[in-house]
Model the fold of this input.
Amino acid sequence: MIILVTGTSSGFGKWSALAFARRGHRVIATMRDPDRSSPLMEEAHRQQVAELIDICRLDVNDAAEAGHVMETVIARHGRLDVLVNNAGYAQGGMVEEVPLDEWRAQMETNFFAAVRLTQLAVPHMRRQRSGLIVNVSSISGRMALPGFGPYSASKFALEGASEALYYEVRPWNVHVTLVAPGFINSDGFKHVEYTSGSREASGHPSSPYHSHYEYMADFIAKAMKRVPSTPESVAARVVRLLGRRRPPLRLYGTFDAALFAFMRRLLPRSLYHEILYRSLPGIRHWGPH
Done:
């Protein structure tokens, strides 16, 4: 199979590229800065799959570059079997404090870039009467956490577009799967981007949202260090999709994501939200004092 994966310099993108290559598939591993390919390729050489991985520069927000990459893949290989839209980042901040231009930047990378690449890939998949689009979402695309409104909004949007696409392309034997992991044992929390206003609020007790930032940041950092799920374990689950005749619309990549999804289906919505609200870290200290 010919598989294109975006955002492969680290994390899930890196480990999924390696997992696909171990299965003998040709992987086009894209990243915005190919100079950051060393972690991927060093591990690829260690696993003896380097010859199956092609590093390709791609800024997913550059429409011309995305079109060129897709044209190159089709010209070189004649087909594209799997597209994994993984590239993205997390914008932190309370809804009130994130400037609109940063909301737009979050949506551009996490949502519109994935739609753009999907629109480029689907015509080829329809012609070959087969294909799989894997859109990397998050449990944040099913439930929103305070302090991550822009990130959740981008993933909620991706969920909606992917679900529509799932029905639209099925007659051509093209499938769509949303991968929605929860907490993953990684340093991802260190790479959350905060606005200057958010950073200021988190450091000043006089800010109305100071306690929100203080307790949520500590909670997320600890959670991401204590859970057993890793980018590698999530990648292993995604690779198994290739052996399925009808891949599912949603794949919850971690236990906590599956648990929250089950709770959302099982409980009355008002009770579900009340339980989550009362479970927020330090909630008694939030708000006016």
Remarks:
- The chain has one domain: 2-193+229-258.
